[in-house]
Amino acid sequence: MALYEHVFLARQDISAQQVDALVEQYKGVIEANGGKVGRIENWGLKSLTYRIKKNRKAHYALMDIDAPAAAVQEMERQMRISEDVLRYMTLAVEKHEEGPSAMMQKRDRDDRGPRDGARGPREGGFDRGPRPPREGGFGDREDRPRRPREDRV
């Protein structure tokens, strides 16, 4: 049997319990067709990048599947029929990841670099240091000569 990762998006106006019921329904379809479902993750309600069928948010769910292709095709057929499922994607994988997925891992905000504008040395191997102040630029308004305008009296 082949290994798959399957993610689907459910409408924003259904409850979390209804999303769990959808997951159990599709898990039953896989098991009835000779496959098995491993890890199941509910990623919760997240904002969409663009509206899908008038929805701005969606419930995301991930399932790791070990099943024949016919079982996955039957599950996808039922998802196409369902009005609660906005989108789905099934990917064939070599092996399933151990532990939580990247979406479920809590990122430590300290893992990223400092946000104070200091980026470290430049790629060329030297640092030019701070930029000297500009002279005669647009920032020096009082030093700029004023021209009389014709429409002023």
UniProtKB/TrEMBL annotation:
Q: Which Pfam families match?
A: Ribosomal_S6
Instruction: Extract the CDD domains matched here.
Output: bS6
Q: Which UniProt keywords apply?
A: Ribonucleoprotein, Ribosomal protein, RNA-binding, rRNA-binding
- BP terms from Gene Ontology: translation
The record's region (Disordered) falls at: 94-153
GO MF terms on file? small ribosomal subunit rRNA binding; structural constituent of ribosome
Q: Which InterPro entries match?
A: Ribosomal_bS6 (IPR000529), Ribosomal_bS6_sf (IPR035980), Ribosomal_S6_plastid/chlpt (IPR020814), Transl_elong_EF1B/ribsomal_bS6 (IPR014717)
Q: Which domain of life is it from?
A: Bacteria
Question: An example Gene Ontology cellular component term from the record?
Answer: cytosolic small ribosomal subunit
What is its biological role? Binds together with bS18 to 16S ribosomal RNA.
Q: Which family does it belong to?
A: Belongs to the bacterial ribosomal protein bS6 family.
Q: What is this protein called?
A: Small ribosomal subunit protein bS6
Q: What is the lineage of its organism?
A: Bacteria, Pseudomonadati, Pseudomonadota, Alphaproteobacteria, Hyphomicrobiales
Q: Which gene encodes it?
A: rpsF
